Amino acid sequence: MNYKINSYVNYLLDNSPSPFCDYIISKEILNLDDKTVRDSYDWAKRFKLYSEIADEQFPDGSWGGFVDALSRTNANKRKYKATARAVWRLRDLSLDENDEMTAKTIDYCRKVLMGEIKTICMKESSNIEQNWVIRNAVSLALFDLAPDDPLVADIKYDRGIVTDNQMAVLRHRLANGPFGLNMTEPYDITENAVDVTFLHGLEDLKSYALFGELMSEKLAPFFYSLCERLVDPNDQIPIKINNYWGPLGKYSESWNKYELKKKDLLLRIIRILNGDSRKKS
To answer: Using CA atoms, how far apart are residues 127 and 129, in angstroms rounded to an integer?
Structure first.
């Protein structure tokens, strides 16, 4: 655990944490014993944040197309219109191979990469073996959910080895984040709302060995100051929800109160500051 976030963890635990907040802190940050983590997981999965994604999962472990919605799945009426979006949420809720729903998705990804499933993109006649974009997305999804799987050993190796080239890759990705967002400099929140796209971009980099070093340069000090603002009951820091990323970062059942948004944002930030929890297992 990164002990610099200890006071913020205590703040969340002392202020009526949601079931998923309690589970994520127990598992990722405090690294508590297996029984305690399992008990908190069993309680969290009883609630809507879990059932709303589980109810839309198809029997094969997918949510329709992988990166694009498939018309035959009636996606326009579904909350999770593509599998890649659902995988983001599984990661966001810290659901791994020990979860039945996630285990089905992992099996699905493995079957795609082994050629047992052929068509999973919007052009339903497209062959996965010929579509490197989809294949790369499936590989990254499998790594997100099961980083020790042999089928993604190359990704784990590349992100785990410390080299000058890795830092160059990180700096490039930092400067070319989601939608071309330049994340090199901490964004200004004195007038603008907290940018959730910025947070998503950083979450995608957490698995790199040099992520902590990258954060320490400019980003970590900024995020610690942001945490101080979030625990201040008198600070009305603006928080804007981006519909593109869906429910990512939502750990409370509802965001009908500003205080709930603040607590959920605080948890999301301290998870980034804590680094990749999978390295601690």
So the answer is: 5
- If one counts every other C-beta atom within 10 angstroms of the C-beta of residue 110, the result is 19
CB 165 within 8 A of CB 209: no
- Report yes or no: 103 and 87 within 8 Å, Cβ to Cβ: no
DSSP 276: -
Is 23 within 8 Å of 44 (Cβ atoms)? yes
Mean pLDDT of 35-44: 98
Residue partners of 20: CB distance under 8 A and separation at least 6: 44, 47, 49, 50, 93, 251, 252
CA angle at 146 for the pair 244 and 161, rounded to the nearest 5°: 95
Beta strands in 153-243 (DSSP E): none
Q: What CA–CA distance (Å, rounded) separates 238 from 191?
A: 8
- The 3-state DSSP class for residue 158 equals helix
Does position 208 have pLDDT exceeding 80, yes or no?
yes
- C-alpha angle 118-120-122 in degrees, rounded to nearest 5: 130
What share of the chain in percent tops pLDDT 90?
67
The pLDDT tens digits for 165-175 are 999 999 999 99
Query: End-to-end alpha-carbon separation of the chain, Å?
Result: 12
| Tokens (6 digits) for 157 | 């190796």
CA 40 to chain centre: 19
Beta-bridge partner residues of 194: 239
Q: Cα separation of 277 and 281, whole Å?
A: 7
Cα–Cα separations (whole angstroms), residue 111 to 53, 86, 216: 21, 18, 39
Write the DSSP symbol of residue 59: T
Mind giving me the DSSP string for 107-134?
HHHHHHHTTS----SSSTT--GGG-HHH
